[in-house]
Amino acid sequence: MTGPHPPTPLSINGEGETAHGKQRLPYSHARWRETGRITADLPLILLAVLFVLPVVWGLVASVKPADELQFKPWSLPSRIVWHNYVDAWHGRIGQYLLNSAVITLVSVVVIIALSAPAAYSFARLKFRGSAAMFLFLLGGLLIPVHAVLIPLYQVNEALWPRDWALREWLSIIGPYIAFGLPLTVLLLRAYFVSIPKELADAASIDGAGHLRTLWSVFLPVARPAVATVAIFQAAWIWNELPFAMVFIKTPALRTLPLGLLSFQGEHATEWQVVMAGVCTSIIPLLILYFVFQKHIIKGLTAGAVK
């Protein structure tokens, strides 16, 4: 009695097909394809390293002793100095974080609150002059931000009372909102156009007006787009410096970039404390990005696949 027969090896005909009729690439072709994939990914890997390396160096520099950071900036620390973060906190970094958080939150909320109805109007409502108004709004993207610093300073000097405590914050929140509107309207309108018209028709049949349709139908569907523009605007406002330098004079009202700039002395600078403050400043944005990461990716890839 004989045992089970060994499996018959697959034979490959001259056209590269196996005995079961399935196509199988020759070994040389598969290896060439794998090599090509690695070669195509190499620039992305190098780009990722290019972006990550300064962050890693900043984290290492923030825990190095002052003499090592000055004379051996690229070496690993011989000992970790967590007191650099304590010194940064004593330098009112907590107050600057709170100031930037309030200004960023108010600006982003107002930008989205004003941009969403405008984007809905340009995407769904047909009225005379809508195209011209939309192009006029997009013209704000062509205005250099720094070209209007002096006119805005003169306007704010005449607009707000000098003894008002929030005068300096309002002087920068207004320009932040104005310069954030064009891009936000553009991105939200592009997403609103891709939403099926049947959803708006169903809401209209149920008796919903335009504002109700926007709030109950379009904004929930467009959460990825809203999260994307919110992160973009928050990152810009959080890191903005020129407006803060011109309009904010009171030390207690300084934003985070302006506060970090004050860490630099006239004759000497404790760079390890500065780096500790910089590393502290990126934590809120990182948390915000990781929380809304899924929505951001959806917002960026919306419309890429039909």
Instruction: Tell me the Rg in angstroms.
Output: 28 Å
State the share of residues found in helices, binned by percent: 55-70%
- Determine the CATH superfamily of the largest domain: MetI-like
Number of DSSP strands? 0
Distance between the termini: 61 Å
Low-confidence stretches: 8-22
Average pLDDT confidence is 82
Percent of residues in beta strands? Answer: under 5%
Q: What's the CATH topology label of the largest domain? A: MetI-like fold
Number of domains: 2
| Main pleated-sheet profile | none
Name the assembly state. Answer: single chain
- Which architecture name of the largest domain does CATH use? Orthogonal Bundle
Description:
The chain has 306 residues and is mostly helical. The chain folds into two domains: 27-61; 85-301, MetI-like (MetI-like fold). It is built from 13 helices and no strands. Helix 7 crosses helix 8 (210-221). It is globular.
What are the defining features of this structure?
306 residues; mainly alpha; 2 domains; 13 helices; 69% helix; globular
In short:
By secondary structure, the protein is an all-alpha fold. The chain contains 13 helices and no strands.
Topology summary:
Blueprint: H1 27-61, H2 66-71, H3 83-124, H4 130-138, H5 149-159, H6 167-194, H7 197-205, H8 210-221, H9 223-239, H10 242-247, H11 256-261, H12 271-291, H13 293-301
